[in-house]
Amino acid sequence: MSLTDTKIKQCKPKGKPYKLSDEKGLYLEIAPSGGKWWRLKYRIEGREKRLSLGVYPDVTLAQAREKRDDHRKLIAQGIDPSAARKAQKQATADTFESVAREWFGKRRVGWADSHAQKVIRRLERELFPWLGSRPVSEIKPADLLAALRRTEARAAETAHRVLQISGQIFRYAVATGRAEIDPTPSLRGALQTVKKNHYAAITNPQDISPLLRKINTYKGSLEVQSALRLIPHVFTRPSELRLAKWEEIDWESQIWNLPPERMKMKLPHVVPLSDQALAILKELQPLTGESLYIFRSPRQDKPISSNTLNKALRTIIVEAMTGELKLEDEQIENISALLHGGLPKVSTEQIEQEEL
Prior knowledge:
By secondary structure, this protein is of the alpha+beta class.
C-alpha cells in the first residue's frame, strides 16, 4: 500500500528501527529516536543496494517519489545511482581552486616567501574569480583563454605567467587523477607576444672600478654592506645570497653548500669562497653568528628582505654608471668574471646548477 502524509505523521518510533514501504523500492525508515529517513532499495548488476534520499519532512513524500523516479531512470540505463552520486560529489569537490591550492601547498616548499605570495596572488586575482568554482576536469581551453584575456588586456606579460602557472596546476590534476587532459598546450600562440626589455650589462672592465667604490662606500647596515661586498665574489642570485645560512659554510674547504631546495633547478650547488669572501663573512660573524641566517634582518631573526638588497643594488648601479641593470633574476656574471682575471663572459646556464 502506498504511503500518505497522514500515515507518515501518525507513525511512532519503536524500540528498534522499522520501515514503511511506499512503491517501486521507496520506503521510510523510522529510528528509535524518532528520526525518519527516505531510502531507495534497488538492484543493479545482480546486487541489491540502498540509497539515502533525505530526511522527512525536509524531503516531502512527493519529492522523495520524484527522486526515486529519477534514480530509476538511471538504473534503466545501466547506471548505478550511488556511483553516479559519488562521482558528482567528487567532481564538485575537485574544483580548480581546491586543486590549485593543493598544488600550491606542495610546490611552495623551498620557494622564497615573496615568490610564493606572488604566485598565489596571481591565482586569486586572475583565475579563481572566473574558474575557481568549476570542476577542474570540465575546464576547456576556451574557458581558460577567456579568463586569460581579461588579464592580457591589462598586462600581457602577467597573462603569460598565469598561463604557465595554470599549466602546472592542470598537469598536477592529471597526475592525481582529477582531470583527463591539460588544456594549456592548446593555447600555445593564443596570447599576444610580449616585447622583451633589454637591460644594461657591464661588459667593460673600466666600468667595474666605480661600481666597486660605490659598494665599498655604501651607507647601510653591516648585513646589507656585507651582502653587497660578497656579490662580486660568488656566482649566485641576490635572492639566493640573502638566504645564506651559517651552517652552509664549510670554512675548512672554503666552500658554500647551497641545498637543492633553494636552487631554481632543485639541484645541489657548491660555491667556492675566496680568501676575500671568507674575510667578509668573518667580519660579519660576531654580529649575526648566533642567528640562523648570515645576512640577518637587524629587527628580527629573519634574512634581510629581497626589496632591501635589490634597492641597495639599484641605488649603487644608478649612481655608478648610466642606466640601470636589472638584478632581480639576472646574475652579475660580468662583474664576477672581470674580478677573477678578466675571464670571458660565461652564461649563467653554464655556471649555475652544477650537479655534484
